[in-house]
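Crash report, auto-generated. Payload:
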Amino acid sequence: MRGDTNRGHRVRLLNMTERTVFFLSDQTGVTAETLGHSLLTQFNGQEFRQVTLPFIDSDDKAHEAVARINAAGEADSLRPIVFSTLVQDNLRSIVREAQGLHLDIFDVFLAPLEVEFQQESTHEPGRAHGMTDIEAYMRRIEATNFALANDDGGISRNYEMADVILIGVSRSGKTPTCLYLALQYGVYAANFPLADEEFETGELPDVLLEQKHKLFGLTIAPERLRHIRKERRPLGTYSSAQQVRYELRESEKIFRRYNIPNVDTTEFSIEEIASRILDSTGVERRVRA
Amino acid sequence: MRGDTNRGHRVRLLNMTERTVFFLSDQTGVTAETLGHSLLTQFNGQEFRQVTLPFIDSDDKAHEAVARINAAGEADSLRPIVFSTLVQDNLRSIVREAQGLHLDIFDVFLAPLEVEFQQESTHEPGRAHGMTDIEAYMRRIEATNFALANDDGGISRNYEMADVILIGVSRSGKTPTCLYLALQYGVYAANFPLADEEFETGELPDVLLEQKHKLFGLTIAPERLRHIRKERRPLGTYSSAQQVRYELRESEKIFRRYNIPNVDTTEFSIEEIASRILDSTGVERRVRA
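Recovered output after restart:
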């Protein structure tokens, strides 16, 4: 009993060191989150509870944010970290009353930019992730539709229109990477799965070779691929060590045979895979999100 | 002739005021781009040429970045703006030699965080968009597969597993929003198109009503919807003014009848629609990208 109580107490003490991080925005909060994550990953061993408060566009909502920050600070016994991208002065001054460490990109970076441009900033909600450009929205939608129609070697095979065509074995990351390239950058990305037909002949089909300069390969460590495939089908050849090694070996042979640039996705997030593809191929972003 | 020359000269003068903005990173550049866009949208009337230099992870690449920044400054006759998220001190000091306005989140925000945490930051490449967590990667992939399988009322209709089910007329933004929710936040988002069957009866099918608390509606201005639909099918009823108004009117009736929260996507980007859905429904992010 006493042991249990002690354990409970230790757990509570550990929890007390978990700090709350707030991401405040008059828009989506994407900028505040992105900024915050980049900074917080520089500190190992810290645990954070993360709360995004988007669309703070009135005095009421700003006061509500203050109340939530102060309540979290009391509950944690540690003052919260507040990443804020509010631009309207009245809302900024309300939020500032909250008991927390305030880190605000507009505080520090607007002034040097105003000097540089010899122009005052608007102090109006920024629409950094907003519908500033209907054409950009349309391009992202069309690129997404393209990725869906040209996924997994399927339906359209409209490879003439593609900016890039990803090839690789099943579950090497092709589909999410194509969708991310479409949504984030408006890039037209198709993908084609390498399977038995390619492995047995060691050759790529003509429909791909006609667009050889657009091909980009994805590969992955065998153990990682097994782990991913087992999530889908725990049993059978599909996720067997032998099958996975065979497919990866043969796909890498094909990359070498045709001199296709490729990346090992084992250690990479979807963002990293996408960025490396753009960087390696020189494909231009059609949209900057 | 003289007129043409003058016009040419004016054009050149106008071009000279276009400034180059660089986004430098030892990783993907997503953080630098996001930060930069938020700040630059505060300045109306400025035109920028944007260049992302990701994966600067060696002295050579840092020197190459310096050369590109300086070359752009000479070509533009305006010093470039440099948003940088490099963390390694040797690379930072090389990049600093470039002739530009340097804006660096680590310069200004690491020190207060180090004081707050009573801990030095690692100064190691941050992996803010990196594979810090294989489980997070898997969740995003699985959420993406879920969105694909449950797109457009199709295939699985595995609505028990859904966090949210978007409903709305064709081309109101359901598919890209579901994919964005999956890729960015790991949220399980299904979607179901409202069409003749629902409009004629004014009712939703049982498969949706069983999960009524997960339903979220998308609507859009008629003119905007026509514009989007015409991109796909320029002629025919699908994009006629009458049809578009009819479908939107009936879908909004359904939202009212069943008291389904909804958002008008006309003025919103995909990020904004996604953020508003999370904000309105209280659905929690499963991943913070």
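Post-recovery validation: Chain A touches chain B through 82 residues (CB under 8 Å).
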